[in-house]
Amino acid sequence: MKTTATNTKIRKIVSDLRSEKLIPRPDFQRRLVWSNKHKNAFIKTVLENLPFPEVYIAAGEVDLATGEGKEILVDGQQRLTTLYHYFIGSKIIRLSKDVPAYEDLDNDAKKQFLEYDVVVRDLGAVPIDEIKEIFLRINSTSYSLNPMEINNARYDGEIKQFADSLAAFDFFEKHNVFSGNDLRRMNDVRFILSVVVTMMSTYFHRESEIEKYLERYNDEFDYADEIRAGFIGTLDIIEGFDFPGGYRVWNKADLFTLIVELHRTVIKESMSLDYTVLKHMLTEFYDEVDRYNKEGNEDVTSANVILYHSAVLRGTNDKSNRLARGKVIYNLIIGCMKMLN
């Protein structure tokens, strides 16, 4: 395929977007979401006359009666729409103090903005299936993206960065919670986001709620201090149990449930517990689950052990299994509280 790269002025791009000669969101593109922080940083790049990577367009529909044609924006949607929204003064962008509104620029600065050269690579008139393939190749790696990697490509705002900071805690490295592959595929961040969203709401199915929270708290996450304090407090309790390395509790599904239920009871419901007693109860329970896992149900009489084992064996991120494990651990914590009363 022969392609050409040319410089196109922002003023032409703005005009083409306004007149819908340039289509910014063909159906095969994911809806990209930048935070206001990233939009402001990008606008500053242009106002300071610094370059940014090329965008891709292709020929779109042509009106055979008038000869008017349209172009499809194959890649560069967020960049060009950000510039357009800045130019028209859209409330979609909340400008930071160091980024002046377009209408507040002096005439020289306005002219510099409108005359800024955007490098545009024109793919020409190619079939839509070929355009889709090009888009996928531009925006993919050598393997299929998992849900967290897709969300990371779309959201990099406040709650995502908050989850990044929690995933970096020494606690997780010390106890080998995440494998090297987990870290490469962002499963550590997915785990943290699942915990945080559950703390803020309730158990949900797989990743069904994560994207909603990434979008809702992309620009601001006012609960960061509260959640961080509760998260740290919960990890401190677990650390105090001093479970040995390689113990069941360090498996992601088991740890997920313990974090959520300890946060729910100790942090949110302010239950007073004897952690020595609770550690003893948890240790007995986890040991019995392990025995059942190895030997079957011959020596196990506890329905909770059987239920928990089933809920951690497969489909661990299904809502039903998260609820089942949560109920068992919650009842253990309640049982510990009753022993002290």
Automatic annotation (TrEMBL):
Residue ranges of domain GmrSD restriction endonucleases N-terminal in the record: 14-155
Pfam families: GmrSD_N (PF03235)
UniProt xrefs under InterPro entries: GmrSD_N (IPR004919)
Superkingdom, natural source: Bacteria
Protein name: GmrSD restriction endonucleases N-terminal domain-containing protein
Species name: Neolewinella agarilytica
